[in-house]
Write a structure and sequence with these properties.
This protein is of the alpha/beta class and 389 residues long. The chain contains 14 helices and 17 strands.
């Protein structure tokens, strides 16, 4: 049933718009028959892990798609970052953005390094390169920007920045699969980049990730580290851990590559419908496009100028499970907030107070998007009632 007034909203006593929860990040799925065929072949071979033929094929396909020389598939992006930081032999401090998923900082801290938080640019939501310069000390060994929302974070500028300060440069590219900056596919910037193929990502392998690089020596060291340091049967050449991706996950990734164009088109379409339905509505705006970048629109990101949390309550009552990514900022989470309770990140905190991520992806229809937009429109049309929720 269409909702025409604020009183029709579930939070005001009406029926929820959706019988089942409408999630942010509900997994995109490939062709099931194709996947099942690959799984049957894996079962027939009884080769389930330890760099099987499907994994090799997957890495080669990724290298071609990402236009990079070397791809090292890993069990997940968090472990991938930890392995990369270890192999690079970093010490001391690593600069990370204050507004990102907590794993970016956790990966640094877990490896015995110190994450130093850098504020973000309120317009781009990516690391503020000027604040990064202010945070460099004698203990700084690396900088790890994040391509937040899949929006490239001026990678060429960070390459210049890292070279000027003598720092290693790695990119957390968890959100940025198939994205481009100035015609260059995200994957080959800096020393290396790390992608996430978690189930909620635009491109998933159930669980997994990949490290990409054009440095052959680094790639060789990473391959050793991902498999306990083994260089051959009974030969361990270096320190390592278990960061391997399984054959089943690699098969999922290969099947997802075949449907990637459809997924990206659906994301773009959903974003366009949201923007069209809510065009001119005071108090809400969506991420603007940039001609020099290609995005995957994995996240439909709205900035709500006032009453963001009240609007979230309205949506949840309708079974629309929107999210406040990445509230309240990593520097306000444990263990970091206990280390420096007074640390302020004005840009990150301002953006964190406004962000609302809306459902999108292949599991969300155009009709679903229109209904969510209708709910937002009705809620924002009566700001006094919204403010009092």
């Amino acid at each position: 049933m269409a909702k025409r007034t604020f009183d029709d909203l579930a939070i005001a006593g009406g029926l929820p718009a959706f019988d089942e929860p409408l999630h942010v990040g509900r997994p995109n799925l490939p062709d099931r028959a194709k996947f099942h065929q690959m799984v049957d072949q894996i079962f027939d071979r009884r080769w389930l892990s330890n760099r099987g033929p499907v994994l090799v094929q997957f890495e080669e396909a990724l290298a071609a798609h990402l236009r990079v020389d070397h791809v090292i598939a890993v069990c997940n992006a968090t472990v991938g970052i930890e392995i990369l930081l270890k192999v690079l032999g970093l010490t001391g401090e690593v600069l990370v953005p204050a507004f990102t998923f907590v794993a970016s900082a956790h990966s640094v801290d877990w490896t015995g390094l110190t994450p130093v938080f850098v504020d973000i640019d309120k317009a781009t939501h990516n690391m503020d390169i000027e604040d990064a310069a202010r945070k460099v000390t004698r203990q700084t060994s690396a900088v790890m920007p994040v391509h937040l929302w899949g929006e490239p974070c001026r990678p060429r500028d960070f390459e210049t920045f890292a070279a000027r300060h003598g720092l290693s440069l790695v990119f957390d590219s968890a959100h940025a699969f198939s994205c481009e900056s100035e015609g260059i596919r995200v994957a080959s910037f800096g020393s290396a980049e790390i992608f996430s193929f978690h189930a909620t990502k635009v491109f998933n392998s159930f669980e997994g990730g990949a490290i990409t690089t054009n440095d052959a020596d680094l790639a060789k060291a990473l391959r050793l580290a991902v498999n306990f340091g083994f260089s051959g049967v009974d030969q361990v050449a270096s320190m390592g851990t278990n960061g391997k991706m399984t054959e089943i996950c690699a098969a999922m990734g290969l099947c997802q590559l075949e449907t990637l164009d459809t997924t990206l088109a659906k994301n773009r379409s959903n974003q366009a419908v949201y923007a069209q339905k809510l065009a001119g509505v005071p108090g809400i705006q969506f991420r603007p496009d940039c001609a020099s970048e290609r995005r995957n629109y994995q996240y439909c990101v709205a900035e709500v100028s006032q009453w963001r949390d009240q609007l979230l309550k309205v949506l949840i009552a309708e079974n629309v499970l929107a999210r406040r990514y990445f509230y309240p900022g990593v520097h306000k989470m444990e263990p970091y907030v206990s280390r420096d309770p007074q640390l302020k990140m004005p840009g990150a905190e301002a953006v964190a107070s406004r962000i609302l991520v809306l459902p999108t992806g292949t599991a969300v229809s155009e009709e679903d998007v229109a209904r969510v937009a209708e709910i937002i429109y009705l809620a924002l049309s009566e700001p006094d009632r919204l403010a009092n929720l």
